[in-house]
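Give me structure tokens for this 295-residue protein.
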Amino acid sequence: MRQMLIALLLCLASHSIHAWNGAGHRIVAAIAWEKMSDAARAEATGLLAAHPDYARWTTSQPEADLARQAFLEASTWPDDIRSDPRFYDEQRDQTIAAPPGFSDNQRHRNWHYVDFSEEGHRQGDGELDAQLIRLSGRLRQSRLPLSERAYALPWLIHLVGDIHQPLHVGRKSDEGGNLHPIEDPEHPRLPVSNLHRWWDDLPGPPWLRGRFLEQSVARLLGSHPPPEQGDPLFWREESRHLTATQVYPPVSGLTPDYRTAARRLAEQRLVAAGWRLGRWLNLLLNPVSRETASQ
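Here you go.
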């Protein structure tokens, strides 16, 4: 059974573009929205309203909640486009014309991760840290075309979440845990999976929204203190250290102690990502002093 599982993982070993499932990204975005200034929220709202997929994010939402709901749903957009026929994998597919309103319709799978050797040397083609820095610079430039900044914002919201999932700053040798098989009979959907996917699902079911999402956000904020702010390279190094020291289960498998520690660590990373994203957007979308933004 284990040999069959490993063979299956090898067949599916194109690097996962998920980091946290939809629940995790919406939790991060909800925390960030709470920590953003009014001016930063207003700027974010204007940018997302100019995005070609804004109507998709706000369908069937109460009018009073449109701005916040668009922000939360935009957080999953860079994962959603992996199955969107308007977009293509630039390393695999033939180029297709960008739909109206998009200057870029590549899926950019390698933006979601960055890999290192077990000795700490950067390996592979992952660009997560570099793209966070690049996208931050584009959002800060208010003179850029609105369409370019509108495109950059969902990516930045998403990638701040990604860089806080430790296995997205992972080991090249096992593709960020994608080649590390996991058997979890307690998992309601994936009793046979891999370590990376198992960590992605720790925030809750991917469809989590509404009242249950709000309850999760309130519980997490009440259970974990605000983090030190730092910057994308600081966040990357945190995740790299956690991958090296805490993320992999013991040889005996998913023990009760490991499950408890992993869930606690995942919660801490979600809260840290949300706080940091909110503060970061205060800097990028509403020029204030770094001291004010980090309060």
